[in-house]
Please model this.
Amino acid sequence: MNARILVVDDDTAISEMIGIVLKAEGFEPQFAGDGAEAIELFRVMRPDLVLLDLMLPGIDGIQVCAAIRAESGVPIIMLTAKGETTDVVKGLESGADDYVVKPFNPKELVARIKTRLRPVLPESADTVGIGDVLIDVQGHEVRRGSDRINLTPLEFQLLLALAVKPQQVFTREMLLEQVWGYHYKADTRLVNVHVQRLRAKVEHDPDNPRIVMTVRGVGYRAGAVS
Amino acid sequence: MRRIDWRAGLARLRRLWSGSLRIRTVAITVALSAIAITIIGVYISTSVRTNLFESRKDQVVAEAGRAATSAQSVFTTAGEASEAQDLESVFDAAAGAINDSVSTAPLVAILRAPEQGGQAPFIDQASDAWDQEMATDSLRAAVLASDGDSVSWQSLAIADPSGVGTDPAVITGTLLSVQAQDYQLYLVYNFKDVQQTLDFVQQTLILGGLALVLLIGAVAYLVVRLIVGPVRVAAETSEKLAAGQLEERLPEKGDDELATLARSFNRMADSLQRQIRQLADLSRVQQRFVSDVSHELRTPLTTIRLAGEVLYDQRKSFPPATARTAELLHTQTERFELLLADLLEMSRYDAGAVQLEVEPTNLVRLVEDAIEAVMPLAREKKSELRLVAPGGYFEAEVDGRRIRRILQNLLGNAIDHGEGRPIVVYVDSDASAVAIAVRDFGVGLAPADMARVFDRFWRADPSRQRSTGGTGLGLAISQEDAIVHGGDLDVWSEPGRGSCFRLTIPRHRGELLGGGSPLDLPPDDALDLVRDDEEAS
Model:
């Protein structure tokens, strides 16, 4: 079955053009022109991925992103017109997994979409421990004791990447390559923001992390299994 | 050591002197009034002393005259009445007469004048404290030369009755005649009371003078404060205005000159504030405009780009002319996109809307990455890229994206203009700064061009074919990137010897460059490196 993609953009020309590119790659796109329509259509269509423009009339992209994230872990890729720092960070903080800056080329967009739809998980045992939580790789589940921790696929992938190599210190660039599929220098804020989001979910005290540890000046590593 | 302290103290005093109008004014006022008061005090004290002494002396001389007259009459009466009368009792009577006619008990001495024949009616008589030294020779001579009515006097110092110190005194001398024999009558008056009065007056004068000087000092201080206070407030307010607190104003009180100053100052501040606000509004509008243009232009450009890419991917199935059209559309869209991105970046700098994302970064690693990124281009131009990083601690707080952009710009230019000769990248650091220099040995720049190299849309040689597809804004943006880090981007170049661009940035965010750089411009070993290379080949 082809992946269904919800394209949210108020500019019909760009929506149509993205649609042409996506269809050529075998995806099934549907379109929404504003925030309210996007949320409505999302509930009906249950897409496999959302392409979301940040500048929308009415409910803006950040709010749409937060609303979708509140009910689903579906991959969200932001389309940002501005390279402005604050917009990208706001979008990532409200739950977007990745972003593409307009104007982008179609191959780049398709590559981003494919990485998010088919995450490459590292080879590992069925269950991996990190700190005091246990990752069930096959079942795509993370548990602390008997409590299930709800992670988005991206957060799951990030946590697993750290957990399978507990001895390894991961630089942000390594994580960008392994989790986001960037093979060139990309924006390390992606890593920073998602580590913050992940910590908020898995750590007892996000200000004093025990599971996703910071290695100052280098990057991150897994906390010792306990 | 002590000398240095003394000098330091002097220097501090001098600073205080020239630094504070208040201290200077008060000091000058106090000094001048102290001099005036001293002169007046000395004058008053002198005339008081003279007056006191003169009047007391006159009194004493008059008394002495009276005493001599009384004594003389006693002696005369006794001599006329009976020669056989007891001289002792006559003398006692004379002493009594003397004592009756003086106010304070003086020292008394009745001495027989020297060089007289005959028998003395009585021997010399004197009080216990009498000392022959008290009557000087000149006084004795004056007394002997006088007639019986006149009184001679001299001032002298006598021992204080308490035995400590001396007191001023006046000695009077009169000639008496006792049974045809000349006798000198000396009376010594202690002027201690006069001295005490004088001391008291002088003490009062000194205390009064000091009090007056202090009072004048205090008044001067108050007056200066009244004047300097508002001036100081004005200075502080100007400082605050200069620091950006545009709401600061001076209090306007009354109608005097200071109030006029305050009003003019406030009017100036109002006008400044208005203009700055206008500029700020303009800047906001500009920023807003940049942001809007960014969105409005990028949206259609994205569609064009996507469309162009789709056509470009299918160009093989098009007739040749259409295929070439698709290719041109593709490359020019890319160029347009780069230009737009650079323009927007430039406007962001112009609007002051640039934010740094600093984190501790190893600059050598950053340079290695940048070199790797331009490797394909360098290989194409057959330029060898070398990194010279002579050890050291290269961690610095920088915005990696911007530094990488600077490096890509500099490396791209070096490859473009490097004539296929080696390109050397230096990285070095000291305690406060890190520096990166990119040195090429290509065509170089004329001195006139060197000054324009950071100008927008300026190109060294318009006829030159560019492979990095620059927009003409690269170095201008790089310079802004350096400045926003608190650093600097310098250039050295000579025609035929190549160019060197040097980036220097402070190691920590918010610090300032001391003026120097860890790297010289151009790095002096650069030529050696190439020479070695040429010899080897």
